[in-house]
Amino acid sequence: MNIKNMALIFAIAAIFGNTIVLAEETPQENRDAQRQRIREAAYQESLRRRMQGLPSNPNETPTTPKTLRHDKERSPRGDLKRRPYNIEEARIYFGTDEEGKPCYQSVGEHFENNPKFHEVGLVLYQPGWFSETFENIGTMADENAQTKLKDTMSDMSGYLLWKHKNHGAWCPEQNVFIGGTGDVGKTDSNGKATRNMCEVYAQFLEAKQQAVQTK
After folding, report:
1. Do 163 and 156 contact (CB within 8 A), yes or no?
2. Burial class of residue 22 (count of CB atoms within 10 Å of its CB; 0-12, 13-18, 19+)
3. What is the pLDDT of residue 15?
4. Of the candidates 47, 91, 84, the residue with the CA atom closest to the CA atom of residue 67
5. Per-residue pLDDT for 9 more than 50?
6. Residue (of 179, 167, 170) closest to 198 by Cα position
7. For residues 161 and 96, what is the distance between their CA atoms, to the nearest angstrom?
8. Which residue has the higher pLDDT, 8 or 58?
9. What does residue 132 show for φ and ψ, rounded to 5 degrees?
10. Are 60 and 66 in contact (CB under 8 A)?
């Protein structure tokens, strides 16, 4: 075989090999591009909903429980974007607006604009070794009760390896904020769903009522 024929064979092999690589890479590139388009569309939809005064999560409704946190020091810890979070800034559904539609505002705006929001109950979750209970500490109109609630919703507590997150929950169907809970019905990285503490509280109230009726 002469040199020209060998060179031709190598050239064809190189082209064929590159074609295979491109064929293998193209589907992945397409998948990456498709995921990017989906993320961009979701982001644009989120912005559109916020501009309309709606929750960015389309699954959030007036009856959806919501996990809340409170940074007492308002330090720039917060989420991955390093924003501070505060319960007064959390946006939730409560009541209706002037047009009779479900009103979606921050907790602070609800407190300022709607006197009925002052009647919202404040509850503390108290876990125990063998049982758990809930303590009703007042309403949003009570500043001392508000302080107690926020103390149980701070970012982190404990020491070193024993630090753990403290959360709270907005339970629209029970019309209460609960302090000291975990995430409300979320799924962790292992696929395990956390308990919906609003449902746990509802079960607690039902059991308490049944106990009173049986006396």
Report:
1. yes
2. exposed
3. 47
4. 91
5. no
6. 170
7. 45
8. 58
9. -140, 150
10. yes
